[in-house]
Write a structure and sequence with these properties.
This protein is an alpha/beta fold. Among the domains are: 169 residues, Rossmann fold (3-Layer(aba) Sandwich), CATH 3.40.50.12780; 125 residues, GMP Synthetase, Chain A, domain 3 (2-Layer Sandwich). The strands form 9 sheets. It has an 8-stranded mixed β-sheet with strand order 14-11-8-6-7-16-17-25, sandwiched between helices. Strand 4 and strand 5 form a beta hairpin. Helix 11 crosses helix 12, helix 14 crosses helix 16 and helix 19 packs across helix 20. The N terminus is likely disordered. The structure holds 5'-O-[(S)-butoxy(hydroxy)phosphoryl]adenosine.
Length: 676
């Protein structure tokens, strides 16, 4: 990694926070880093004290069973209480908790008091279905308020939720239900996406038909109504057609509204499970990432408050689905623990038109937007006319998450969405970390396009080389003396425990040790490559399995992608290393061009030259394939493995997590054509 080309991302722009922002920020004291790191246990304990505990902890951290951490040992609390009851008791019952918009344009607003009432009824309904403390509940719902309610209702009664993203297939659902041993499934007839209905109940039926012996009950919400049929004046919603199993399947409207709105919160041990969330490994079956109660809630509460700078009047929109960790931590638990108003949106960003996000911001006067680089690049491709015609003046802060944001997209976000008024927080974290780990604090940090900047106070992120030596300590000393002249690179690791860290992989302690703790014994291995620049800022380089080795040089796929999208003709780029007799790996780039540019031999040459000029001749791609789409997982990550298969002419592997499997076939044809 030390050979990583030093010209990487020659990005020197830096944006200090405005004086106005600093003056009102929740945290504006640069000394906070040193204070927190001088005694990180005291720092986190201070945050935990801001939550309501039924019983106090006796020990902040027990790391004697490493890598299995215990935080706030002996403490008891309830996550739902901390997100709802606590605020209602403090006089915030009338404040909006959730502002929701369905894709067809239907709207619903729930105050904290209303949300509490609905959650309590639902919690009693789950109990009536036989769900109790310690049981696992699989949640397979569209982005409707009932999704957040179900998570909170589970937390209220001490059941562990396992949310499965509605875009996953019946087969994925089957795997996840069985791995968790779920007792109940909560689903809906369907959800709206691009004007069509995603048939969720059908997928549940198919999954259960494959054999899910632990599932006793399926609670079914009528979301789409789906017209259905009317016989003798009695309407039968479409979700009753076929597949309905009496005794197993229960209609939401038959059960939930009749329940009492009084449901006490179950006192949970700080280390009791809050949820399991599946994340795909690069190989093998998905990993059930386990999060517990006290530490997780502390982590999301603290990071949300400082990174997003919540104020009582903020309207916060995290565009992630609750099927991903981002939705768990920053649609539900983080903002609600802070009594913030959150926006939830069910559908696609281009329905009915490509300005849907901007219309939502305009209508609901959203003040903070948190979205992903892949979305930002789609907006860039669609053109500025869509945001330009909307009133975005309510925005005051922007966030990015999910993958490295290339400087080009960062600058576009700043100019066309933030209109130079809003700081941008590029937040690095993982399903496993539970909460944001590396991010600017908007009242302190001088941001740089493409850099997630610094570890959150109390978090120790460093860079190791191949031998497991910390290459950042000496570097940071040079930075402090103002003597650092170039960056250092390597593997991103976390060297001390943090409250919201995963507590393991569900049912597989050995895999947990092996995946995260064996590469560098005693240290959490993130799997990401990173560099620290002359100012001590982190630049994330993507997964280390995305690092190419071209003629002995480590080149990150991301640095080549970044160079490509820096060219005016390029909207999006995905780069992979393909096997090469001489170089080990050669670079192949798949490129989507912007509206107004035409694919041509001349353009291909120009793009190769551009990369060679930006990074160096070693990074010049052997192949540039211009394409209309790129294969992505449903969470928006480019499936490099499939591109590698295409580039190396192998048969295609498993494509079940692909958003549009046809994309790969088309790419493959194109590639073979280009080569021939
Ligand atoms: C991986 C984790 C974090 C919630 C969404 C994804 C990449 C995430 C950034 C960022 C560069 C990022 C990393 C990480 N990643 N955020 N701001 N800059 N890379 O959760 O599915 O668990 O993926 O996403 O590679 O390891 P996830």
């Amino acid at each position: 990694m030390s050979e990583t080309i030093q010209t990487l991302l020659q990005e020197s722009r830096s944006f200090p926070p405005s004086a106005d922002f600093v003056a009102q920020a929740n945290q504006s004291d640069p000394g906070v880093y040193q204070q927190a790191n001088a005694d990180y246990l005291a720092f986190w304990e201070g945050w935990a004290r801001q939550l309501d505990w039924i019983e106090p902890w006796h020990t902040v951290l027990d790391w004697s069973g490493a890598p299995f951490a215990k935080w706030f040992v002996g403490g008891k609390l309830n996550a739902c209480h901390n997100c709802l009851d606590r605020h209602v008791a403090n006089g915030l019952g009338g404040k909006r908790a959730i502002v929701w918009e369905g894709e067809p344009g239907d709207e619903r607003t729930l105050t904290y008091a209303q949300l509490l009432e609905e959650v309590a009824r639902l919690a009693n309904a789950l109990k009536a279905l036989g769900v109790g403390k310690g049981d696992r509940v699989c949640v397979y719902l569209p982005m409707v308020p009932e999704l957040a309610m179900t998570m909170l209702a589970c937390a209220r009664i001490g059941a562990t939720h396992s949310v499965v993203f509605g875009g996953f297939s019946a087969e994925s659902l089957y795997d996840r239900i069985n791995d968790a041993g779920a007792k109940a499934v909560v689903t809906a007839d369907g959800g709206w996406r691009r004007g069509g209905i995603v048939p969720l109940k059908k997928a549940v039926d198919d999954a259960l038909a494959m054999g899910c012996p632990t599932v006793e009950k399926v609670l079914v919400l009528n979301r789409t109504g789906d017209a259905g049929t009317v016989t003798n004046g009695i309407a039968t919603p479409a979700y009753d057609r076929g597949g309905w199993v009496d005794g197993r399947d229960v209609r939401w409207e038959d059960l939930v509204p009749n329940q009492s709105a009084d449901c006490p919160c179950e006192p949970m041990d700080s280390e009791d499970l809050l949820y399991i969330l599946y994340t795909s490994g690069s190989t093998g079956k998905p990993k059930g990432i386990v999060h517990t109660t006290g530490g997780y809630l502390t982590g999301v509460y603290a990071t949300a408050q400082w990174v997003f700078d919540y104020k009582p009047d903020d309207v916060f929109w995290c565009t992630a689905d609750c099927g991903w960790v981002t939705g768990h931590s920053y649609v539900v638990y983080g903002p609600l623990a802070n009594a913030t108003t959150v926006v939830m949106y069910e559908g696609a960003p281009d329905t009915p038109d490509k300005d849907r996000f901007w219309r939502l911001i305009e209508k609901h006067r959203i003040t903070i937007l948190y979205t992903a680089p892949t979305a930002i690049r789609a907006f860039m491709k669609w053109g500025t006319e869509y945001p330009d015609r909307c009133d975005l003046s309510s925005l005051r802060l922007l966030g990015s998450v999910g993958e490295p944001i290339n400087p080009e997209a960062w600058m576009w976000y700043q100019e066309h969405i933030g209109r130079f008024r809003c700081p941008i927080v590029d937040t690095w974290w993982q399903t496993e970390t539970g909460a944001i780990m590396i991010s600017p604090l908007p009242g302190i940090t001088h941001t740089k396009p493409g850099s997630a900047t610094r570890a959150f106070p109390g978090i120790r992120a460093t860079i190791f080389n191949d031998q497991g030596e910390d290459v950042s300590t000496e570097h940071m000393e040079r930075v402090d003396r103002g003597e650092a002249t170039h960056a250092v690179g390597g593997y991103l690791v976390i060297t001390q425990p943090w409250p919201s860290m995963l507590r393991g992989i569900y049912g597989d302690p050995e895999r947990f040790r092996q995946v995260y703790w064996s590469r560098f014994p005693g240290t959490y291995f993130t799997g990401d490559g990173a560099k620290l620049d002359e100012d001590g800022c982190f630049w994330l380089l993507g997964r280390v399995d995305d690092i190419m080795l071209v003629a002995g040089h480590n080149i990150s796929t991301m640095e080549v992608e970044s160079a490509l999208v820096d060219h005016p003709a390029v909207a999006e780029a995905a780069v992979i290393g393909k096997q090469h007799e001489l170089k080990g790996q050669a670079i192949a780039a798949f490129v989507i061009v912007r509206a107004g540019f035409v694919a041509s031999e001349a353009l291909v040459k120009e793009l190769k030259d551009h990369v060679a000029k930006k990074i160096g001749p070693i990074a010049r791609p052997d192949d540039v394939i211009i394409t209309a789409e790129l294969p992505k997982t449903r969470s928006g990550k480019i499936m490099r493995r499939l591109l590698r298969d295409v580039a190396e002419g192998r048969a295609l592997g498993d494509t079940t997590t692909l958003a549009d499997a046809a994309v790969v076939g088309a790419l493959k044809d194109k590639y073979e054509h280009t080569e021939g």
